[in-house]
Design brief:
The longest helix has 22 residues, at 104-125. The chain is built from eight helices and seven strands, in the order βαβαβαβαβαβαααβ. Helices cover 45% and strands 15% of the residues. The protein has a seven-stranded parallel sheet with strand order 3-2-1-4-5-6-7, with helices on both faces. It folds into two domains: 7-184 and 225-250, NAD(P)-binding Rossmann-like Domain (Rossmann fold, 3-Layer(aba) Sandwich); 187-222.
Length: 257
């Protein structure tokens, strides 16, 4: 198990990638502390992990609130003694509109959650993270391959991408690695909503929309949440001890560098 003995905090545990990250981390031997505004998904994950003999705990947390962020970290340290891994994947999409048509309040909310939320969680975790610790920020292919309607979301993720490199530079002297996993289309609840919305707007089937998206990838499919979670676990693990400040594209080859 590549995360045997690790203590991993996963921020942004929703029904898609966040939940799959938490479940797979636990299966790989990590003790997992989850953070999300809603507790429903985390409760389900807790039960699944416990049934498999692992340990996971969920803490209600809005990453915009320092007191709630502190409670997540306090729970991890009180229960497990340290934090060896952090995944920043808290999600906020300001809506599928052109960038200049996106309300300022929604843009600022996305920045507060995606950028400032990740920085706040990192700031709280670092004092309890020993040398050898790893931080992974979850990015989006929309920062590399613009898709109309994704501007507000992509701007916030691009800011987090820049922060990732500076954190890698600054935390390296403490033996802490910081990397980014850039996700493309993720076949989970979010993409399924997009398929339904787009199919309705265009008067075609959801399978037609899926096939169009899948055809952009050399692998001919939309990667699943669970499959893509493996890339994050690799960056958290000892298999990536010499990797920091890096960007790992996880998109089935739709975007190549």
């Amino acid at each position: 198990m590549i995360l045997d003995g690790a203590v991993v905090v996963v921020s942004g545990v929703g029904p898609g990638l966040g939940a799959k990250l938490a479940l797979r981390a636990a299966r790989e031997g990590a003790r997992v502390v989850m953070a999300a505004r809603s507790t429903g998904v985390m409760s389900t994950v807790e039960k699944e992990v416990a049934a498999a003999g692992g340990e996971a705990v969920g803490v209600a947390c809005d990453v915009r609130r320092p007191d709630e962020v502190a409670e997540v970290v306090r729970t991890a340290v009180d229960r497990f003694g340290k934090v060896t891994g952090l995944v920043n994947s808290a999600y906020s999409h300001p809506g599928f509109t052109d960038l200049l048509d996106t309300p300022d309040k929604q843009l600022r909310r996305s920045l507060d959650i995606i950028l400032h939320g990740a920085l706040g969680m990192t700031l709280a975790v670092v004092p309890h993270m020993p040398a050898g610790g790893s931080i992974v920020n979850v990015g989006t292919m929309s920062t590399r391959k613009p898709l109309r309607g994704e501007g507000g979301y992509a701007v916030a993720k691009a800011a987090m991408a820049c922060a990732t490199q500076y954190l890698a530079l600054e935390l390296g002297e403490r033996g802490i690695r910081v990397n980014q996993a850039v996700m493309g289309w993720l076949d989970g609840p979010g993409v399924r909503f997009y398929l339904t919305m787009t199919a309705s707007q265009r008067g075609v089937s959801e399978q037609d929309v899926y096939d169009e998206i899948a055809a952009r990838s050399p692998l001919g499919r939309i990667p699943t949440d669970e499959a893509c979670a493996g890339a994050v676990l690799f960056l958290l693990s000892s298999l990536a001890t010499e990797v920091t400040g890096a960007v790992l594209d996880v998109n089935g080859g739709e975007h190549m560098q």
